[in-house]
Amino acid sequence: MGSREREILNDATHLKVERITKRFGDVVAVDSASFDVRRGEIHCLLGENGAGKSTLSQCLYGFYRPDAGKIHLNGIPVSYSSPRDAISRGVGMVHQHFVLVKTFSVIENIVLGTHEAGWSINLADARKRLAEICSRYEIEVDFNAIISRLSVGEQQWVEILKALYLGAELLILDEPTAALTPQESEKLFRIMRRITADSLSVILITHKLNEVMQSNRVTVLRKGKVVSTVETSGTSRTELTNLMVGRTVMFQPQRENLEKGGKILEVQGLKVRDDEGRLALNGVAFDLHANEILGIAGVAGNGQKELFEALVGARKIESGEIRLDSEDITNQTPRSAIDRGIGYIPDDRYRYGLVGDFTVEENMILGLQKAPAFSRHALLDFSRIGAFAAKGISDFEIVTPSIKAKTGNLSGGNAQKIILAREFWSTSCCLLANQPTRGLDVGVIEYVHKLLLKKCGEGFAILLASEELDDIISLSDRIGVMFKGEFMGIFDAGTVTIEQLGLLMAGQKILSSGQPIAADRI
Amino acid sequence: MFDIFQEAIVVSMLAASLRIATPLLLASIGELVVQRAGIWNLGIEGTMLMATYVAYVTAISSDSLMLGVLAAIIAGIAMNMVMALAATTFKINQFVTGLGLNLFAAGTTLFLYREALALYGTGNVKTIDPFDNLLIPLLSLLPYVGTILFSQQFLTYFAFLMVPVVWFFLYRTRYGLEIRSLGENPKALDTKGLSVSVRQYCALAFGGAMTGLAGAFLVLALTDRFVPGMTGGRGWLAVVIIIAGNWKPVPITFAVLVFAFLEAFQLQAQGIGIQIPYQVLLALPYVVAIIAMMGFRMRSEQPAHLGIPYHRE
User: Fold this and answer.
1) B 188-207 residues with CB below 8 A of A?
2) What is the ipTM for the molecules in this complex?
C-alpha cells in the first residue's frame, strides 16, 4: 500500500459496529451496541465487569456469533463463522488471559496454525518476517525462548507479535495491562502508538482510567449497552467514571490520622518454597502494628501468595519466625490461625476462599463450622447459620436471591463480600488481605476500601497486598515493595511516588537523588 | 537356577521380548499421539480387545490374515471414534467414557464368543495359521542378532519403524506442532481459527488404528485363536508406559522394552521351572509398573490440558 493511499484511508472508518446483540441463555451480554473505529486511532472500550466489553470484542473477532447486528470492515459488511474469517480480514486479538502454549518457544507459538504450504515448519522465513515486525514497532523478544521462562510483560509482546504476524490491521487488546508493571504498561502504550502511526487501529478494552486518557476516543459501556462515545481530549476521568458507573463515585477514601498501636505481628527472616520447590520468599521481615495498614505493592507472583499462606499456616516455613503478640506461631496450622483470630482474604477467591457449589450461608461460615455459634455436637445449627448469613447479607449489602443460593452464580463483588463478612466476623486482631479488590468494579472497590479503613480504625492490624497501586497508595500507612521473594524496602506512605514504586516493582533499586528513605529497612 | 542364562535361552528370551513388545509399542505410540492431543483415552484395553475379536473372526471367515489386520484397524478406529464423539463433541468426562468402552468391549466379545461356542460346540474352535516370521535377507543370518532382531513378524518391524515416524511427525511437522498444542492449550489453536475437534478426531483415529494393529498382532501372530479377555491388561500397561516414558517417543520405547523383557523373563523362568511361585513371576511386570509410576512422579512433560474437555468459555 503506498503512503498516499494510506493517507486517504487514514481518516476513514476502519470498523463500524451496528446494533450488535449477543445473548447467553436469558442473559443479554451485549444489547444493541453500536460504535465505530477510525483508522489509526486507539479506541477504548470502557466499562465495569459484566458491562459486555469482552463479549463484544469476542464478537468482533468471530469467537462468538452475535445474535443480531452488523459489522462493517472498511465499509464492507462482514460476517464471521470463526476467528479464521476475522483473521483473514485483518482483525487480530490479544486475549485477557494469554493464549500461549507454555512449553513451546516464542516462534513456535507464533507460527502455530499459520497456513503455509508443506508439512514441515519453515522457521527461517518466519524468523525473518518477525524480525522485520519487531524492528518496525521496536518490540524486543528472544524468538527461541520457552514461554514459561518469560516474564508476563514479554508474554504480552509475544501475544501482540502473534496478531501482527497474522497480518492484523485492527488489533483488539483485552485488558492488556492487567498484570503488567507501570513501566511495562508504558512500553505497551509506546508500541500501540507506533502501531497506530502505521495506520493500523487499536481497540483497547480496559477499566483503568489512566490508560483510557491516553486513547483517542472512548466508548463507554454499561450493562451491555453503549452509553456514549466521546473524544478523550474533551472529557475527564470524573465524567468517564460517572458514565461507566451511572452514579457519582468518591475517588479518595477518607483516611483518619491514627496513632500507630502496639506491635501485633512480627516476621523475621522468612524463607518459604513455592509449589515447584523454588525459594519463593527469601528472608522476608516486617512488623505490623495495631491501627495500621501495611501495603505490599508488587506484581503478583513475586511471593505474595506464599507470604500470606505462610502467615496463616497453609505453607511450610523453612526458616524464620512469625510472632503474634510475641507468641511464636511459626508453622502453626490453619486451624490455629483461625482460632487466634487471624483473618485471611485469599487472592483467588473461588479457589481458596469459597466453594462455588456451596450455598451463600455455607460459605459464610466456611472454616468456622466448629465454632459453638454455628454447631452443636458435630451437627450444624442451620437456624443460627441462617440468621448469621442474613445479617451478613444486609450488613455487607450482598446481592443474592437468597441465603440458599449457589455462591458460584454470584458476581465477583458479591462473592468477595461473603469472604469479607466471614473474615471480619472471625478476626480479632489481624487481617491479611491478598489482592482484595482484584477484578472488582469501581463501586465495590470503593466499598472494600471503606471497610478496610474502618477495621483499621477499630484497632486491627492489616496486611494488604495489591497489584493496583491505587489501593496501596490510598490505604497504606506504610508501603513495602515485593520483588522476587524479597522486600525492596518498606517506606512511609507519602515518601514514595508511583514512578518510584513502579521501578521498585520491576526490581530496580532507587539510587538517584531524591530517593525515598527507607522508613524501616529491617 | 542359572539355566536361564544359557546362550540359547538368552537369545530366545530377547527375541521373545521384541515379540511381546510389539503390541505394547503399537498401542502406546498410538495413544501417545492421542494424549498429546489432550485426550486421556482409558479405553485402549477395550479397543484392543475388540480389535482382537474382529481380527480373529475376519481371519477365520475370510481365510486371509491381511483382511484380519485390516478389520482390526477398522475396529480400532471405530472404537476410538466413540471416544472422540464423547470427549470432543459431547465433552463427556473422558475417564468415564474410557472405562465404559472397556466394559462394552469385554462384555460384547465375551457374549459373541459364547454364542459362537454354543453354535459350533466347544470342540470346534477354529484356529488360524498365524503369520510367519519375516526373515530379513542376509541380516537374519547374522549370529544372535539375526535371530533376535531380524527374524520377527512384519508388524514388529512396523511397530519399531513407527517410533521415529511419530517422533518426526510430532516434533518436525506443522501438524505435529498443532497436535502438541492441543494437549497444552487448545485455545491457542482455536483463537487462530483452526478446529480443535477435527484434530482430536484425527489423533484418535490414528491411535485407534495403532491399537487395532496391536490387537491384530495378539491374535494373528502371538497365538492362533481368540480367548475372552486375551488382551490381559496390555492396554492398561500402555497407559502406564506413556506415563513412565514421560510422554516422549524414545523413553516410551525404552519403557516398553523393559516391560517386555520382564514378561519374557517370567515366561522363560516359568518354563524352566525356577523355584519361585509362578504368581510372583506373573505379577513381576505389574509390580515394576507400579514402582515405575512412583519413581516417575516428576511428570515434567505431561500435557497441561490432558483429559480436560475444551470449551470456549
Assistant:
1) 188-194
2) 0.88
Q: Please give, rounded to a whole number of angstroms, the shortest distance from the CA of A315 to a CA of chain B.
A: 21
Stated as kind and residue range, the H or E segment containing A481 is: strand A478-483
Distance CA(B227)–CA(B219), nearest Å, equals 9
User: Are B83 and B39 spatial neighbours (Cβ–Cβ below 8 Å)?
Assistant: yes
B194 contacts in chain A (CB < 8 Å): 84, 113
Q: In terms of Cα–Cα distance, which of A7, A46, A5 is closest to A197?
A: A7
A395 contacts A421 by C-beta, under 8 angstroms: yes
Grid coordinates representing A124? 527461517
Asked if A100 contacts B186 with a C-beta cutoff of 8 angstroms, the reply is: no
Following DSSP, what letter does each residue of B73-130 receive, concatenated?
A: HHHHHHHHHHHHIIIIIS---HHHHHHHHHHHHHHHHHHHHHHHHHHH-GGG-----P
B248 at A interface, C-beta within 8 A: no
CA distance to A163, A436, B90, per residue, from A65 (Å): 20, 34, 20
Nearest to A42 by CA among A169, A191, A204: A204
SS3 for A432?
strand
Helix (H, G, I), strand (E, B) or coil at A392: helix
Give the whole-angstrom CA distance, residue A199 versus residue A197: 5
Distance from CA of B180 to the nearest CA of A (A): 9
**B186–chain A nearest CA distance, Å:** 8
Nearest to A82 among B174, B185, B193 (CB): B193
Q: Are A490 and A519 in contact (CB under 8 A)?
A: yes
* This prediction's pTM: 0.80
- From CA A177, how far away is CA A295, in angstroms rounded? 21
DSSP A11: T
Q: How far apart are the first and last CA of chain B?
A: 63
Q: Which one of A84, A103, A113 has the shortest CB-CB distance to B178?
A: A113
Residue-wise pLDDT tens digits, A161-210: 999 999 999 999 998 887 787 788 889 999 999 999 999 999 999 888 88
- Helical residues (DSSP H) of chain B, grouped into ranges: 7-36, 44-62, 65-84, 94-120, 145-149, 154-172, 174-184, 186-190, 196-217, 234-244, 249-272, 278-295
Nearest by Cα to B181 from A153, A110, A150 = A110
Instruction: Write the CA distances from A113 to A61, A246, A250, A262, integer angstroms.
Output: 17, 43, 48, 61
Task: Convert the pLDDT of each residue in A313-333 to its tens digit.
Answer: 999 999 999 999 989 999 999
Q: Which amino acid is at B149?
A: L
pLDDT, tens digit (0-9, with 9 covering 90-100), for B156-202: 999 999 999 999 999 999 999 999 999 999 999 999 989 999 999 99
- What is the CA B223 to chain-centroid distance, rounded? 16
CA separation for the pair A245, A222 (Å, rounded): 7
Cα radius of gyration rounded to whole Å, chain A: 25
Quick one: B59 exposed, middle or buried, by C-beta within 10 A (0-12, 13-18, 19+)?
A: buried
